[in-house]
Specification:
Oligomer: single chain
Helix content: 25-40%
Length: about 700
């Protein structure tokens, strides 16, 4: 008999464990959101070994003298990701509560930030009957459900839950790919038939679904989470009608292609880039028409003019491509969902996860999925094709460590979407798809941490792995102020794209570094004129100073009347303190000369350290996503190791590779999302026969 994949085993990969997860930041590529992550406690002493059948506690309710069977119990429930609640009981009371909501959305008003108020509420109420936290409804409900199960276990009313552990038979630390699961025919509970199967309700999947809906096509969408991925507010499009309306000349496409070739050392696929270059304006027009239908008063903002010019001192090419619709209750994802559900009458199948793809000969014919609530397997036949839009792998520690050891080593904060665990990548590899050979993480220089904390994974008490920072993205980190290592020494030119500082820190102690500035920050950042989402600091410096004060309260940032006092607060001592003070003095000399003789930073991005108060904080990289995925051609068709298309299989977004290689330098704000949605539409056109 074939070995079947149990619901519990499948959740090991579907949820990528129950910790080591943090969600993507606020609506765009960047945010200055705060988050609180509670680590999971050790496995409950009363639970059975992972993978075995849980048994009811030996002591029954009738035999007990108190309300509870003393001990520690854990349970999980589905929020945005997987939530774990661990509760300790004596005979009459809940004595301790630990929440792992690291799979929830990061941000001051979102799921991760709800951890502490929910924990306090459970302790105060001594019950799972508590009020939820505003802005974190899904997380709150999951915590209440899991807490109720813990209480029921402690009362002996239900069997003790045997929790999934990281790894398992389909994925281990020794091999991220593992083996393709086997599902017995007898275990397939139902069969669905459709034209196009879209796997993933992220920004690409929802765009593809909306386009299919507008074309009257037969399609279904499955999503292992409980809601579509949060909208990414910006997207990149070349030579759109709105760029022309802003009086921008056509983009210099030769210069653009040469820049792409240069930053990727020639490793990117320019044929794929040409699809975005040539068809992203049409993608923008599709989205604009959707807004016109559902939110006609919305206006798109195109980053143009001086706001889109990187000063020539460093020679970066910065094309006009960024389009932004603003933030509000109705956004692009909401509009797409209305089109799918109301216009096409298609219900998105949430908590339905990809298990494996199916083929008939050389053609992909559909997929096996699993309902994460019931555990039931579903065969989905897709007569026109399957689109993999399941994201990257930033929430899969085995993939991160093996596929991107450098990116993993320099990262302190993870703000990616919690369901991005590489499912689509693994499923495609299992049937012979080619994968990009080199990593391409989207790293931002904004992962604020307290002194002494190293970058890279930390192992939690339950064995899971998580990046250490809990504060989301700290926007001020992207400003090119003086940066020093733990020895108090400057080590690089601080002016560059977002990923350059974290990569430079790979060669420094702990893979972290400190940023130092003085009271002239509001004026300095105007002169620096950073672009993309880092311009948020320039546009609202007081807001960043307010955010800094909050980080001071948390012990993550420091302000002092003298540089010597700042050195003490930041943990410098002995020779390191002497180096730090000498480095600051040298930096002032370079500023006075307006010539960075040491590392070549452009003069306009030098700053003085002369006016109190002085500010400092430690940081590493903040990962937004991974861009190392399955290779495709210019028609979004997945290719095999021989470079030939796999019939019936398409890919878009972070699930796809070949576009970014080695890095995402953010020379073009919104280009990743623009690529995502351009290829989502392209896949539907090819699959449906609209284009040959």
């Amino acid at each position: 008999m074939s070995k079947t994949l149990s619901r519990r085993d499948f959740l090991k990969s579907a949820a990528a464990g129950v910790a080591g997860i943090a969600a993507m930041g606020v609506l765009g590529a960047c945010s200055s959101a705060d988050a609180t992550t509670a680590a999971a406690t050790e496995a409950p002493t009363t639970a059975t070994e992972p993978g075995t059948t849980a048994q009811a506690p030996a002591e029954t309710t009738a035999a007990r003298t108190g309300t509870y069977i003393p001990g520690t119990y854990s349970a999980t429930a589905q929020g945005i990701g997987t939530v774990m609640v661990t509760m300790t009981f004596d005979e009459e009371n809940i004595t301790d509560v630990t929440l792992d909501v690291s799979g929830e959305t990061a941000g001051a008003n979102y799921g991760q930030a709800a951890a502490e108020p929910l924990r306090e509420a459970l302790m105060t109420a001594q019950s799972a009957e508590i009020d939820g936290v505003a802005g974190a409804t899904l997380t709150s409900n999951a915590v209440k459900q899991a807490a109720a199960k813990c209480i029921a276990q402690a009362k002996g009313e239900i069997p003790v839950e045997a929790l999934p552990t990281p790894g398992g038979e389909t994925e281990t630390a020794a091999g991220w790919l593992g083996t393709e699961p086997e599902v017995a025919e007898a275990d397939i509970a139902e069969t669905w038939d459709t034209g196009i199967l879209i796997i993933g309700a992220g920004n690409g999947g929802m765009c593809a679904a909306a386009y299919a809906a507008k074309k009257g096509l037969s399609f279904r969408v499955i999503e292992k989470g409980t809601a579509p991925a949060r909208v990414r507010g910006w997207y990149g499009a070349i030579d759109s009608e709105d760029a022309a309306a802003a009086n921008e000349p056509p983009v210099d496409r030769a210069a653009l292609r040469n820049e792409l070739k240069r930053y990727s050392s020639g490793k990117c696929n320019l044929r794929i880039w040409n699809t975005w270059i040539n068809e992203s304006a049409a993608m923008h027009k599709f989205i604009k028409d959707c807004y016109a239908q559902y939110l006609p008063d919305a206006k798109v903002e195109v980053t143009a003019g001086t706001e889109a010019v990187w000063p020539e001192a460093q020679g970066f090419y910065f094309p006009v491509c960024e389009h932004f619709w603003g933030f509000g209750e109705v956004d692009r994802q909401t509009i797409f969902r209305k089109i799918v559900e109301e216009e096409a009458g298609v219900a998105i199948d949430f908590q339905t996860a990809l298990v494996k793809l199916e083929k008939n000969g050389d053609r992909v014919t559909g997929a096996i999925a699993q309902n994460l609530e019931s555990g039931a397997y579903i065969r989905i036949n897709a007569s026109q094709g399957v689109l993999l839009a399941a994201g990257g792998y930033p929430h899969n520690s085995a993939m991160m460590e093996q596929l991107d050891p450098m990116g993993t080593a320099v990262t302190t904060s993870n703000v990616s979407w919690p369901t991005d665990t590489g499912d689509g990548i693994k499923a495609a590899k299992w049937i012979g798809a080619a994968m990009q050979a080199e990593a391409a993480p989207m790293l931002f220089d904004r992962g604020i941490v307290p002194p002494g904390m190293d970058a890279g994974y930390q192992t939690l008490s339950n064995g899971d792995k998580a990046f250490p920072a809990t504060e989301g993205q700290f926007n001020l980190g992207s400003q090119p102020f003086l940066k020093v290592n733990r020895h108090g020494l400057r080590f690089t030119n601080e002016s560059g794209t977002y990923d350059m500082m974290p990569y430079a820190a790979y060669n420094q102690p702990g893979h972290v570094y400190a940023s130092i500035f003085d009271a002239n920050m509001p004026e300095d950042v105007q002169r620096f004129h950073t672009l993309g989402c880092s311009a948020g600091t320039r546009k609202n410096p007081q807001g960043q100073l307010d955010a800094f004060e909050k980080q001071i309260e948390k012990g993550n940032a420091f302000k002092a009347d003298t540089l010597e006092e700042l050195a003490d607060l930041m943990g410098f001592s002995g020779v390191s303190k002497e180096n730090f003070l000498a480095t600051c003095a040298r930096y002032n000399e370079l500023f006075d000369k307006q010539d960075d003789e040491d590392f070549g930073k452009p003069a306009y991005r030098l700053s003085a350290l002369k006016t109190a108060p002085f500010y400092g904080f430690w940081m590493g990289a903040c990962i937004l996503t991974t861009e190392q995925g399955i290779l495709c051609n210019e028609n979004a068709q997945v290719i095999d190791e021989a470079g030939e298309p796999i019939e019936g299989l398409f890919v878009c977004g972070d699930n796809a590779g070949g576009f970014f290689v080695d890095n995402y330098p953010c020379l073009m704000p919104g280009v990743a999302m623009g690529r995502n949605m351009t290829f989502a539409i392209k896949a539907i056109k090819i699959a449906s026969g609209e284009e040959a």
